[in-house]
Amino acid sequence: MQYRGLGAAGVKLSEIGLGGWLTFANAIEEAQAHSIFDKAFELGINFLDTANVYALGDCEAAWGKLLAKRRRSDYVLATKVYFPMGRGPNDSGLSRKHIYEQCHASLRRLQTEYIDLYQCHRFDENTPLEETIRAMDDLVRGGKVLYWGFSEWSAPQIEQCLRLCGDRLEKPRSSQPRYSAIERYAETAVFPLCHKAGIGQVVFSPLAQGVLSGKYKPGAAFPADSRAADDRQNQFIKRFVSDDALLKKVQQLIPLARESGCTMSQMALAWALRRKEVTSCIIGASRPAQLEENAKASGMKLPEETLRRIEEILA
To answer: Is residue 175 domain-resident?
Structure first.
């Protein structure tokens, strides 16, 4: 496993990170979760990304138990705040009140004294941005949070944030956009803006919900053990697997991966990691074998000809 700095920050993250979305405390049992965490640490994965809203706190609670016996310095733990955690008027968003209360709730569930990376899960149009920034600044200064960041913020929102931070308030250190060979919107403005500001990218869905693994074929039934076949999860992947034209293009990548001596998933991850702005690719896993396969993408360099042909196929 290779490691990259989080933008201009000193902390180092594994090029492949483990995420908790849709899996832990949701689609996999406790015994599976233990085996996945054991394999992650065995492979050198040190970046772990969850959120308070995943399984409404149960994912964080499950991770707290899984990490209780681990040395705290061995991993970089990230979680998020924004989405509703209750029905009250202050149970969502990025107000100082909600951030403060949810940070402490996350700390209790995760059984830790501090969060390495605390992220705004989305942008809050209903809260003054300066209030959100000051709340994060206070958490960093108070030692509850080491670094803060955001997910799915637009370039204008990031620019506004950096202006408000100035030289007085703690700046965000990470951006978490959706990024893959078939979802590249972040490349246009977010990547260059963040790179200039020293903000690293910890991207999610680098396999496009598994579509870039090549297992979904146009006109064919979904594999029984796939995410698309799970009614609890297929709402997130539906827009991909219902696009036969896209699935046909992805099938054309299979011989290219074979020629490159790697699997489709490894090629997709190596493609994302080709960008210097990307610190880590966050993947989900329901089996240790998936982690083992995907971790091999760390350090993999795709030939220029392979990159060119990927561009042509997916154009």
So the answer is: yes
Q: Is position 136 within any domain?
A: yes
Provide the number of structural domains found in the chain: 1
pLDDT value for 30: 80
Determine the structural domain holding residue 43 and report its residue range.
3-210+277-296
Specify whether the CB–CB gap between 268 and 213 falls below 8 A. Answer: yes
Token readout for 70 is 């681990």
Total number of residues shown for the chain: 315
How many CB atoms within 10 Å of residue 205? 25
Active site residues: 54
Q: How high is the pLDDT of residue 221?
A: 63
Distance separating alpha carbons of residues 184 and 160, to the nearest angstrom = 23
User: What CATH code is carried by the domain that includes residue 170?
Assistant: 3.20.20.100
pTM: 0.93
Instruction: Decide if 243 is inside a domain.
Output: no
DSSP code of residue 170: P
311: burial class by Cβ within 10 Å (0-12, 13-18, 19+)? exposed
Please report the pLDDT score of residue 239 as a whole number: 76
